[in-house]
Amino acid sequence: QVQLVESGGGLVQAGGSLRLSCVASRTIFSEMGWYRQAPGKQRDLVAGITRGGGTKYADSAKDRFTISRDNAKNTVYLQMNNLNPEDTAAYYCYVLDGGKIYWGQGTQVTVSS
């Protein structure tokens, strides 16, 4: 089992920035990252990062969002810049471990126009 605790969501104006954090309860040797889900929509990948630092991004996140990871702290971050109202969603941290995916409880990001 892995517990994930997210923080950093909130309300921001369009063009603003937020930094999300997610701390895992133990060492993660595989992929960590973020999904998001807007009301009435499916949960979609935002960005993922391997333990070695390899990254992947959704097209909507490229050039605006940066994912990073501190392995010593079991923590993954998502720096989000130039936010727009279409980024409004619940953001969920995830971990791939032992063939399973674990989810955080979600943190709400709301971008006002």
Number of strands: 11
Task: Tell the overall outline.
Answer: globular
The oligomeric status of these chains comes to: single chain
Write the element-wise H/E pattern from the N-terminal end onward: EEEEEEEEEEE
Helix- and strand-based class?
A: mainly beta
| Contiguous uncertain segments of 5+ residues | none
Kindly state the mean pLDDT as a whole number? 96
For the largest beta-sheet, the strand count, sense and barrel status come to: 7 strands, mixed
Helix count from the secondary structure assignment: 0
Approximate strand percentage: over 45%
Task: Annotate the secondary structure layout.
Elements: E1 4-7, E2 10-13, E3 18-24, E4 32-37, E5 44-49, E6 55-57, E7 65-70, E8 75-80, E9 89-97, E10 100-103, E11 107-112
Parallel strand pairs: 2-11
Antiparallel strand pairs: 1-3, 3-8, 4-5, 4-9, 5-6, 7-8, 9-10, 9-11
